[in-house]
Design goal:
With 592 residues, the protein is of the alpha/beta class. It is built from 18 helices and 26 strands.
Length: 592
């Protein structure tokens, strides 16, 4: 019997538990909504903010493989639903893209139908839930479309395991993890296994917080986050659990990634600082930083900054110990995130080294940051740190019988990050690193208007300017032209010294899905060898249409299939009426 496409438009009728549905907003019920579009109409379900209805179950009665498409109301990104098919390892939170930045005023008048995944639906039910963590969000589902597929065709969807995916530590708080179940932390990896991702780099910066500072988990939660809210309770439970189980979690994650042909790295943000304005909570504080202000970076005009400096051996010792600890968890490597500095500036050890090399008359503080001599001094210190770190990783690797790789996340241009002490070419030439991620971020110092007649920095002018304007600036997120300008140098370094190279596309939820593909295409055309995703989890993976595109950028061939407009993975559909109200021209909720 020939299988055909099935669309379930009347979810309110199709779900088993009719007693969990209501025609009005209720705290413990799903609200039934009637919708109409040009191509279909029916009854969808919504759980409004501050409501928490019970699970619904849908029995589609299908046999064989199908591609599954979900239609959700597109609104402001505050919209997600949790789903689980029988036999799945984990449930998944999914959401539409935030289309308000593209169609602005009318964003809430659209339904986005997006590809979720393919599955053998034989005898399987679908569980529909509102994520407990997203108590204050909306959960919506308008219809579900099942399109027949062949198993072999599905397995060929992703064939190029070449991408690098960064996971922000925020996923520990933003996903519906069960804090008592270590295996539940595998949820992000499960979602990525059906993608072009080769390397997953998960931040483990929390290792530098609660455990090191000696705070009890209860004390590490800020006062303003305590209370009866669901999120606060979950966050406290996860902090307590994760603090005591970090090693077990990472070992399990690494093994699971290996099972599906991926490698697993631990990523550390290398700037040692305690969050300041407005993040003043104890959970953001590193004990070592608070206890050692004498190791702080110093600005040109002698002010102590809220960052520790790698010019001090004690700071290097501390960070090497943290990196060695995570390497011993069994990961394939460590990624050093060098995009949120500073990590070395004008401290006395740096000035002394400069004077020793260039003479007492030379004043490092007055040299523009791009001066060759200033770069050489900072790079000498940081290269020394990297040599020490490479030795420690080699020691761990020798015991394991496998090299522990080191990647660095660098500025958009290799020349720019030299100003802050990272000489990527020297690190590659000496075999200290195995890969580099060309980030879409760069930092610079605007000093043209504070130069003296001798062409050097006038420190008094510098101080005056800093009182009212920012001198150190940062560009990031969406500037593909900067990536392309910096790419040739990185490409030469990678090719000459045999290291891996990935280039970041735009940040998550910042563009149309097809725009990510367009940027990746330009990177490949200009000599790029791999694509990197910042915040792949939790911020990309859950947005269905964005993840479909970004997870398939592992080869130029895949990109050619991601055409602009309504596609097999994404369609935007105008709502004509909502609960009987005509919205074809004017939305009643505009109200001026």
């Amino acid at each position: 019997m020939e299988r055909r496409e099935i669309v379930i438009c009347d979810l309110a009728e199709a779900c088993r538990e009719s007693e969990r549905l209501s025609g009005v907003t209720a705290k413990d019920r799903w609200e039934i909504v009637r919708y109409e579009t040009a191509e279909r109409s029916g009854t969808g379900i919504i759980a409004s903010p501050r409501t928490m209805p019970q699970q619904l179950t849908l029995d589609p009665g299908l046999r064989g493989w199908y591609r599954i498409y979900l239609a959700m109301a597109a609104e402001d990104g505050m919209n997600g639903i949790e789903l689980r098919l029988d036999g799945d390892d984990f449930s998944e939170i999914v959401r539409p893209c935030d289309i308000s930045r593209h169609i602005n005023w009318n964003s809430f008048e659209m339904i986005e139908e997006s590809y979720w995944k393919a599955a053998d639906m034989t005898g399987k039910s679908l569980c529909i839930m509102k994520p407990e963590k997203h108590f204050s969000y909306t959960a919506s589902l308008m219809w579900i479309r099942f399109v027949p597929a062949e198993e072999e065709e599905v397995r060929q969807d992703t064939a190029a395991k070449t991408m690098y995916a960064h996971m922000d530590e925020d996923f520990m708080w933003m996903d519906p993890l069960d804090p008592t179940n270590i295996r539940d932390y595998l949820r992000p990896i499960r979602r990525m296994r059906e993608s072009d991702v080769e390397v997953i780099a998960q931040e483990v910066t929390n290792d530098l917080c609660d455990r090191i500072s000696g705070l009890k988990p209860e004390e590490s939660v800020t006062r303003r986050s305590r209370g009866e809210d669901v999120f606060d309770r979950i966050r406290l439970e996860r902090a307590r659990h994760l603090t005591g189980n970090r090693e077990a979690v990472i070992r399990e994650e690494t093994e699971y990634a290996h099972r599906y042909g991926m490698r697993f790295f631990a990523a550390h943000r290398m700037a040692l600082s305690n969050f300041g304005f407005p993040f003043s909570g104890e959970s953001n504080r590193i004990g070592f930083v608070a206890e050692h202000p004498e190791f702080s970076c110093v600005s040109r005009d002698g002010k102590r900054l809220a960052f520790l400096s790698y010019a001090f051996p004690e700071v290097q010792d501390y960070m090497i110990a943290q990196l060695r600890k995570t390497a011993e968890y069994g990961v394939d490597g460590v990624t050093l995130i060098f995009t949120r500095g500073p990590w070395i500036m004008y401290e006395k050890p740096v000035r002394d080294l400069f004077a020793e090399r260039y003479g007492e008359a030379a004043d490092l503080r007055r040299l523009p940051s791009g001066d060759r001599r200033a770069c050489e001094i900072r790079c000498a210190v940081m290269t020394g740190f990297m040599r020490r770190l490479r030795g420690e990783m080699d020691s761990v690797g020798k015991r394991r019988g496998k090299r522990v790789e080191i990647y660095v996340t660098s500025y958009t241009a290799a020349e720019d990050i030299q100003k802050d002490g990272l000489d990527v070419e020297t690190l590659a030439r000496e075999g200290l690193i195995d890969g580099v991620i060309q980030s879409n971020m760069t930092v610079w110092e605007e000093t043209d208007d504070v130069l003296g007649e001798d062409g050097l920095i006038d420190l008094e002018k510098y101080r005056k300017k800093a009182e009212s304007r920012f001198i150190v600036k940062r560009a990031h997120a969406n500037e593909i032209e900067r990536i392309l300008r910096g790419l040739p140098t990185y490409r030469r370094i990678a090719g000459t010294y045999g290291i891996r190279l990935w280039s970041e596309i735009q940040w998550e939820n910042s563009a149309e899905p097809e725009d990510y593909a367009a940027d990746a295409k330009r990177i490949y055309e200009n000599g790029g060898t791999g694509i990197a995703l910042w915040d792949a989890y939790p911020k990309r993976v859950t947005r269905l249409s964005e993840w479909y595109v970004t997870s398939r950028l592992g080869s130029p061939e895949h990109i050619g299939e991601l055409n602009r407009g309504n596609t097999p993975y994404r369609r935007l559909i105008k709502i004509l009426s909502w609960n009987g109200e005509d919205m074809s021209l004017y939305n009643p909720s505009w109200r001026g």
